[in-house]
Design goal:
Elements: E1 5-9, E2 20-23, H1 34-37, E3 41-42, H2 50-56, H3 63-75, H4 77-92, E4 95-99, H5 108-117
Parallel strand pairs: 1-4, 2-3, 2-4
Length: about 120
């Protein structure tokens, strides 16, 4: 695995220590320009499905169930290729997963970081 896997909000300033910067949201972050994002990749297909994202609604009380459902989605054919690509990135470089979510501790980026290191 990578020397380091981190996650944070895309609105925070980028750093040379970020390594590969990958946006893991399905929709583009509001108010963020592509130039300001300093992305290496945008992996929409690794993000939770629209249905799961809407059900979750970033409610921390639902996070455990969101995590369980999201991990199941990562094993599905629709996510498998993107998830494998993310694993490949993590194996070769420091990786920072980016999200627009305000509560990053209860986000798909947190779930992905744990999944990649587990």
């Amino acid at each position: 695995m990578a020397a380091r896997i981190a996650y944070r909000r895309i609105y925070e300033e980028s750093s040379p220590r970020d390594g590969q910067r990958v946006l893991v949201d399905r929709v583009w972050p509001r108010g963020m320009t592509k130039a300001d994002a300093h992305l290496d990749e945008w992996l929409r297909d690794v993000a939770p499905s629209t249905e799961l994202r809407r059900w979750y609604g970033h409610d921390p009380a639902r996070f455990a169930e969101f995590r369980r459902r999201y991990l199941a989605e990562l094993r599905d054919a629709g996510h498998r290729e993107a998830a494998g690509h993310l694993r490949d990135l993590a194996a070769h470089d420091t990786l920072t997963l980016l999200t627009a979510t305000k509560d990053v501790e209860h986000s798909q980026a947190a779930v992905l970081a744990d999944w990649l290191t587990g």
